[in-house]
């Protein structure tokens, strides 16, 4: 069974392009599942039946797992057994009719426009690192990028003469994203000013560099973002993804259609993008309460 698990994890890494964090979560969930099967004296995955999967899920519910964690476990089990069936390792899929608990969608926290402007105003463009930081924040908000997409951008991914950038998203999927005048301006200033000085003796196509001439890390970016948010006096919990959430929400509030925002965000399923319409509705209700005479 351990060998089958390793084959599946390899499949997820190579064929599906899952990140290290996602692979770790799947491995942890499935190892717990295999350990449960062993307590039931099952050492052959072909012997697993639906009632055994249901019993395992009942055990997880007894642990007090949240609906999100339970849903992730079910997803891991389904994927694993579908893989086993497709590879001929087992004849049937015992998870086929297992229901996933209904999840309440949490609305992502966003910055309002004034908070975004305060945040973007914090870096000092007169310094090497300040100019870099200004360009990073402007580009992140202008394009709604994931932080990993921002940090892996290459100089060859910038097509400013055509007003767009190319980025590589989840699953190594490439997409084209429009970029506005302000972000183009600050990124060009960084590329011509700070970047050559930061690059020093190294050679890399990665656009954004740390003060040692190496590609900026996720942790490095998170630290500087947190510092700028504190400096701006923003009380919300600011994290790299909040500018992506803010981008989507502000686009929809401004009248952009859902399909266009989906394309720019790189969501494979429009239902993922639809959560921002809930944010938009909350905004509309707030406007109604504030301005309607009988609100």
What is shown here, in short?
By secondary structure, this protein is mainly alpha-helical. It has helices at about 1-15, 20-40, 50-60, 65-85, 115-120, 130-145, 145-150, 180-190, 195-200, 220-230, 240-255, 260-265, 270-290; strands spanning about 160, 165-170, 175-180.
* CA(first)-CA(last) distance: 61 Å
Q: What percent strand? A: under 5%
| Pattern of helices and strands | HHHHHHHEEEHHHHHH
The count of DSSP E runs of length 2 or more, i.e. the number of strands, is 3
Alpha carbon gyration radius: 23 Å
Biggest sheet features: 3 strands, antiparallel
The shape is: globular
CATH superfamily of the largest domain: Intergrase catalytic core
Describe it.
With 295 residues, the chain is mostly helical. It has two domains: 85 residues, DNA polymerase, domain 1, CATH 1.10.150.130; 179 residues, hpI Integrase, Chain A (Orthogonal Bundle), CATH 1.10.443.10. The protein has 13 helices and three strands. The chain has a three-stranded antiparallel beta sheet. The mean pLDDT is 86.
